[in-house]
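Sync notes, pocket subgroup
Present: LS, DG
LS reminded everyone that the earlier model was apo-only. Rerun requested with inosinic acid included. Inputs:
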Amino acid sequence: MRIVFATHNPNKIKEVLHLLPKHIDLLSLTDIDCVEEIPETGQTLEENALLKAQYVVRNYGYPCFADDTGLIVDALGGAPGVYSARYAGVHKNADENMARLLSEMKKKPNRSARFKTVIALFLEGEQQLFTGKVEGEIIHEKKGEQGFGYDPVFKPVNFDKTFAELPLSVKNKIGHRGKAVRKLVDYLKKINNTTE
Ligand code: IMP
């Protein structure tokens, strides 16, 4: 089964490839020559994931899933949330986003935060949503070189390392995207069994 993951982010592709069953032939936006920026004008992660997946189905004719992720920080009233990518400006720079976050979090005693991923799937005329969350805290300075985005400032609960210090296998096991992808995979396996 060929299916597009509506992202250009090689880190996300890597994370998801680890988890998908063999019968799925995963294509990225680059693979289908979709170079334009897909509008993410929704007010929620759910809306944005649906917008992205729907865009690919309508314009490229492939079955597709898209994810949208937000970092939700309690002391900031849930910010950056759905605006996580553009927290420090339209150019979506991870270092600048983290610098703004650490600056907003100065002197905030409550460091609790969570990542939430929503995956929207459009397949065979059906639309599905899958969600994954991981609880953790925002540390005081960046640590670690792996991963991407806000990983160097996010320490998941029950770990003394950030996502940027932990191996990908651990991030996938306990992380937001891994949890959402496993729900997607269960659904795709079910569909595959009923169509065989
Ligand atoms: P999007 O879902 O790709 O639009 O991501 C929204 C924002 O969250 C971007 O700034 C990403 O870099 C960041 N982000 C998404 N997934 C992760 C993750 O797994 N770890 C850290 N940051 C992430």
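DG: The chain has a mean pLDDT of 95.
LS: Residues 67-69, 71, 84-85, 94, 97, 147-151, 163, 177 surround inosinic acid (CB under 6 Å).
Action: DG to write up.
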